[in-house]
Design a protein that fits this description.
four-stranded antiparallel sheet, NE1680-like fold, about 80 residues, single chain, globular, mainly beta, two-stranded antiparallel sheet, 1 helix
Length: about 80
């Protein structure tokens, strides 16, 4: 199980998951900032924060972070 870190934006509801506790891999926030919220243990096959752990792990490996909710997707 790998450790990931959840950050929440100060001016909205978006969350970012990254493997860097400093948040240095996160994109710059256009208005506010990203604030550390909690640690998250992920292992393949789980379903967390509205997404598959496989999707989160793959996105963090490729982009350095995973954004939830995904831009342009309706919240259900």
């Amino acid at each position: 199980m790998a450790k990931y870190y959840v950050f929440r934006e100060t001016t909205g509801t978006a969350q970012m998951v990254t493997d860097d506790k400093t948040g240095a891999k996160l994109p710059k926030h256009p208005v506010g900032s990203w604030v550390f919220v909690k640690e998250l243990d992920l292992k393949p096959g789980e379903h967390r924060i509205g997404a598959s752990s496989d999707d989160i792990i793959a996105s963090v490996a490729k982009e350095g972070y995973y954004r939830w909710p995904q831009p342009g997707k309706n919240k259900t």
